Each structure stands twice: as C-alpha cells, then as structure tokens.
C-alpha cells in the first residue's frame, strides 16, 4: 500500500510513524508513507496557503490551488493506481472500523490535513471521502490522519504477528472484545476464570463470545442494534440480563 499525506507539518509524522507496528510495516515494504508540505506548491509570492473567506467570517481558509496542485503532482508520479483521497474534516463521516477495513483494501490513499478555519469548498471536488475521527475540533488534521493510518495499516496482510488478531478485535465482530488474562493465575485474590484452564476449546470459545456480548451490553448497548444475534447469543443475552439484573 502507498500512503501520501498532504500537510503543513510533515515533521509531526516522523516519530509516530517510525515506531512499533507501523514502523515495522514500513521497514518490511508492506506500506510506504510519504508526507508532502503543500506549502511548497503555493503560487503566492509569500508562499502562503490561506486567505480570508469571501463574505467575512472568523479565521482563514486554505486556498484550493496549493492542495489541488499537490494532488495533481501525486497523480503524475503514480498514474497507474486508483487513489482514495481523504479530506480530514470535522463535518465528514465518522471514522470507524468498517471504514478502516475499506481503506485497507486500497492500493493508494491520500490524506489531506487541514488547518486554520477550514477549506475552500472547491477542494472537495477533488476528494473521494470527507472523514472525521470524532465530534470535536482539533487544531489540524495531522493527528486524525495518524489515527486512520494506524487503524488501516495494522489490517494489511502480515503486518500483525498473529493473523487472527485483527479478526477478533473490538468492533471487527460487531461486539467489544472479551476480557483477557495472563499470568499470574491469582493476582492478589483476583483469580482468572476457571473455564480458561479447562482445555475445552468449545467451552472457552463460548465463554469468550458470551463475555464479548456482556461487555458490549454493559458498555456500548447501541452496538447490538446494528447486528443480528444468533439464537445462542439471544439466550446468552437473556442470561446476562438476569445475572446483571438489567432490563432491556
């Protein structure tokens, strides 16, 4: 996968993207990430990339010319690949695991990081997606782009050490991930559930699925509205409601 990032602050990406799983994915050649300062494309004699909005208003807007020309240059450099062009915008659709899985199927993604008060609306004619990481406003799109890159790259084949990891992640199954434990078996009187030592793989799998259902019901019940529960899951949920003394 090839990732391009258009940003006024390329140095922000140098540390975070060179560490951990993402850094290893870059080293192995499974992903390449290029950060470009779109100020370099400004035709303004002062190299400015922003200007006052027509009609008045607070703050400054990013001008279309530097960003569109930077996108054109990326197209010239990689004409053979279809590109997903993602504009980081607070008014965009909210990023989630489903969208990360979509992005992971792409060959080439371009992230455009905003700054100041927003964008000249004409920039949006050149993008495929307008995306936000949540209902709040950051000083720029850089942190949001890093979040999306991390969530996407970890889904690429052979990036995670265990290929099953991303299949059982929270949100990938429609449920939150079940509780997990490691040594010691007894930590100051808090003991790991006995079923995990039973050696019975089916019983363990059932316990994990039921506990995923329990955690989702207790913490994110709205997620259950988006999935169809099997008969077994419906029976477990009824048990959970009794155990937690909770009404639907």
UniProtKB/TrEMBL annotation:
- Species: Trichococcus patagoniensis
Q: Where in the cell is it found?
A: Cytoplasm
Q: Does the keyword Ribonucleoprotein apply?
A: no
Where in the numbering of this chain does the tRNA methyltransferase TRMD/TRM10-type domain appear? 1-226
Q: Which CDD domains match?
A: TrmD-like
Chain positions recorded as S-adenosyl-L-methionine binding sites: 114, 133-138
Q: How does it assemble?
A: Homodimer.
The record lists the catalysed reaction(s) as: guanosine(37) in tRNA + S-adenosyl-L-methionine = N(1)-methylguanosine(37) in tRNA + S-adenosyl-L-homocysteine + H(+)
Per UniProt, what is the name of the gene that codes for the protein in this document? trmD
Q: What is this protein called?
A: tRNA (guanine-N(1)-)-methyltransferase
Q: What does this protein do?
A: Specifically methylates guanosine-37 in various tRNAs.
The protein's matches in HAMAP family, at most eight in alphabetical order, are given as:
TrmD
Which Gene Ontology molecular-function terms are recorded?
tRNA (guanine(37)-N1)-methyltransferase activity
